[in-house]
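A.,

Following up on our hallway conversation. Structure tokens first:
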């Protein structure tokens, strides 16, 4: 379980492209930071935790770039109270796993933090993977509903914002098509890498079950808790913006398909009760059917849309479709080639991770697209951020002076502000990924996404980077 905590505030100043402040955003706009239990908590064997599919996965050789695991990571399981105190500027967030959730949440009223809790952030109990193949089984829908019910019942007096799933598009593909993430299923690479799986069908089955599980949790909340607790339910989708590679129709269509196969895959069922037409056409029988009954349950089953947005890519038509011929996997179904440069010019400077190019105008286009296509629903930017490399010989002072991160957030926030003020997008919150440096899945500890530096060689001490002061000033 991941959780995002923030403190709501008011106050206003003036915004322009250079100076960002609360005043550039509507009253009641929420600022926060985001984290996830698995990447933060460590304490792998404590509190009756039990193995998750990520514990199993990281123990398999060759999966994590620096051969690390998340057994300790930044030890947030033991240090969350300290973190709350240290980071007690106005926003902060913590990560919490279910075993610790109760304790964490007890602290919140005292610290003035408003929690946004995520029910599923990738760490499925291994026991469910073993018993019935996890998300591949319809049983997961019922079990998720029961789990959600328990969380609503236990924590719903304090948690008013619930996120059912984090990045279902990302983990459907990484976990079941490429096999690069837990549970590591695929059929595209040699069998020594993926022992089981079917890359052309499983991602779609998993996503389908997740949508139904989301719908079931939403409905349970409406029936049993909404009146009494008055909370809101959303889902956090990983959403890149795709810019057409050229003005040619075939590339414009490709950019649309890229959006259909990522954002539309989940939002179309939730708003229109069906998968995007381009997906139906290109995937055919391999795409599970949304029956009229399912459709009725899904439509309208979100109070807000969470967008995890980091970057933008160019998209162009894949005419030759070699990947399709060779790999026969879900990722090739869209017939799109994405690139980060055009005519030798990159779309934006790279952060530490290869996938993360800095393209601030993309967030405005994305917000505008969601407004136009889905009828201006409430949106929360549930993650936005960039990473620096973790270089062993970099001086501490250099690492703490994270000007690139400050510029990143300044430019993304000014474009977001324009989306709200000028384009009329109903965006209600913005969470920085992440509060602390932490364990970045396949990249292990090779990158640093935090506002706070974690000194891995000195007892995991947390030290504020320059961006902490900058963010405080924005919020003042
Ligand atoms: C949006 O970001 C771009 C950089 O991508 C920046 O040049 C521009 O000033 C920003 N626009 C607004 C309205 O802040
Ligand atoms: C490491 O940090 C924790 C949390 O601040 C503290 O409780 C502990 O005593 C420290 N350990 C050492 C060896 O300094």
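Then the amino acids I'd put at each of the 476 positions:
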């Amino acid at each position: 379980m991941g959780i995002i905590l923030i403190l709501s505030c008011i106050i206003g100043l003036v915004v322009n492209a250079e100076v960002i402040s609360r005043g550039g955003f509507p009253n009641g706009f929420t600022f926060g930071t985001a984290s996830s239990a698995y990447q933060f908590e460590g304490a792998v064997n404590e509190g009756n935790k039990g193995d998750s599919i990520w514990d199993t996965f990281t123990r398999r050789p060759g999966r994590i770039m620096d051969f690390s695991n998340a057994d300790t990571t930044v030890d947030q399981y033991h240090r969350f109270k300290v973190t709350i105190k240290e980071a007690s500027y106005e926003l902060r967030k913590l990560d919490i796993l279910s075993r610790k959730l109760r304790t964490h949440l007890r602290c919140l009223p005292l610290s003035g933090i408003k929690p946004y809790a995520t029910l599923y952030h990738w760490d499925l109990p291994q026991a469910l993977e073993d018993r019935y193949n996890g998300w591949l089984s319809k049983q997961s829908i019922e079990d998720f509903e029961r789990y959600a019910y328990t969380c609503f019942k236990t924590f719903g007096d304090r948690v008013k914002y619930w996120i059912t799933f984090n990045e279902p598009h990302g983990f459907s593909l990484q976990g079941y098509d490429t096999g690069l993430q837990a549970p590591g299923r695929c059929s595209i690479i040699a069998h020594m890498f993926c022992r089981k799986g079917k890359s052309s069908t499983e991602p779609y089955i998993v996503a389908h079950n997740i949508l139904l599980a989301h719908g079931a949790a939403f409905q349970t909340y409406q029936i049993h808790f909404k009146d009494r607790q008055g909370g809101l339910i959303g889902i956090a989708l990983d959403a890149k913006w795709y810019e057409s590679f050229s003005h040619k129709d075939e590339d414009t269509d490709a950019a649309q398909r890229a959006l259909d196969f990522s954002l539309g895959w989940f939002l179309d069922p939730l708003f229109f009760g069906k998968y995007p037409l381009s997906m139906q056409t290109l995937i055919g029988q391999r795409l599970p059917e949304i029956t009229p009954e399912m459709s009725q349950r899904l439509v309208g089953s979100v109070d807000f849309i969470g967008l995890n947005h980091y970057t933008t890519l160019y998209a162009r038509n894949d005419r030759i479709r070699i990947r399709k011929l060779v790999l026969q996997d879900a990722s090739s179904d869209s017939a799109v080639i994405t690139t980060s440069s055009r005519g030798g010019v990159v779309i934006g400077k790279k952060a530490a991770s290869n996938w993360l190019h800095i393209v601030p105008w993309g967030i405005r286009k994305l917000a505008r697209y969601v407004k136009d296509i889905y009828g201006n629903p409430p949106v929360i930017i549930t993650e936005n951020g960039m990473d620096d490399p973790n270089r062993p010989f970099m001086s501490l002072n250099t690492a703490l002076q994270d000007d690139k991160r400050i510029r990143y957030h300044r430019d993304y926030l000014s474009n977001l502000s324009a989306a709200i003020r000028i384009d009329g997008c109903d965006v209600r919150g913005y969470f920085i990924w992440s509060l602390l440096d932490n364990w970045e899945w396949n990249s292990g500890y090779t990158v640093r996404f935090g506002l706070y530096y974690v000194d891995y060689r000195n007892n995991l001490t947390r030290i504020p980077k320059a961006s902490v002061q900058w963010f405080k000033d924005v919020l003042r």
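The domain at 22-475 is CATH 3.20.20.80 (TIM Barrel). Curious whether your intuition agrees with the design.

B.
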